[in-house]
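Reading a protein record of the kind used here takes only a little practice. To see the layout at work, look at the sequence and tokens printed below.
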Amino acid sequence: MLRASLSMLVPSLLTTAALLAQGCPGPGTFWKRDSLPVAPTGLTSVGVVAGMCEGESAGVVFEMPANMAVQRITQVVAPWGHAFGTPGFTAALDIEIYDGVTFNGAVVNMGTLVFSLSSQATSNMQVSTHGLNTFDMTPYNVVVGTAPGTGSPAVRRFAVCFRCDLNALPDTCNNGTGQANFFTDATTLVGLQCNPAITPQRTSVIEIQGQGWRDPALATVSGLPLCPLYYRGVFCIRCCTEDAFPAFYTTFANGCPSSIGTAHLIPATQPRVGTTLFVIVNNLPMNLGLMLTGTSNATSGFGPLPANMTAFGLTNCLLHVSPDFLTTLVGGGFSSSYSLTIPNNNGLLGVQLFQQPFAFDTPLNPFGGALGDAATLQIGS
């Protein structure tokens, strides 16, 4: 279809026997733009795009809500079908993820290629007819949503695409017999004009040899529009994501007690870009302390961590963080608050710091104080 000739969209049936996709395996966000159920049951009609050739790609563009955090892709779903619903016909696909997709009519600017399975893992995704084939993306740490949004209001887009490297039935492309290929959610032809309710613009994308990436709702080949005779509907390409850089502030080690107990770190807010982190530090006998902030909880100027500080007069106290930065804590009622302003810079996403308070308590030991609990903070969105 897309290389040299056009082939009609071929109706087919998606059967439960070959169905592999059942939504997401864990918590997170499930993305799809097709009209099929998350887990189809019984016989479900789909449309096999008969003429897509080896080397060409199918994709779906997803739009992120304005307030959504940057996402990490955990699973992708590739639709691979046979015109007669016959199982067992295989293909090898490359997975390509793009961040920052924009549109200019039929032309699609795919933005930054943030992942290619063949390049980064030197392998392919093996798929077979007839169903929704899943692939675990968790080993690859693929992050989307970092590109700035476009338009007004600004929209952030990313695309999940599959390039057909090897089709066990390549005649699908060569003579248009319409056997094994990608499928969409539409089979019924409604009128001779492209129906935007069935084939919405800025949703599916295809890579046409000699043209590049195009919106199939608007694209033409040899002067003929693809939609609705040769392409209609939405590719049944799906994915799962989770927050790539969740903001958290978590205690990871216990401190040693002062005369009124161990100083605890109690986050009042979470460390997010463009905000201020507030932490309450309690059990300060003299209403005075220090916040030790470091870039490591494994090593410091005192050697490997944790480090026993008895030799320095802090009897039976362990240092758990590298004391790279010291902030004075002054409070009342045996507690104090600590604040850290975090710039609105996505380059800080995922940065981890480690904190541990020191509570002044002059009569407690030769050094005159105690080290409280230690915590890890991760800057998120």
User: Anything to note?
Assistant: Residues 9-243 form one domain. The chain has two domains: 9-243, 248-378.
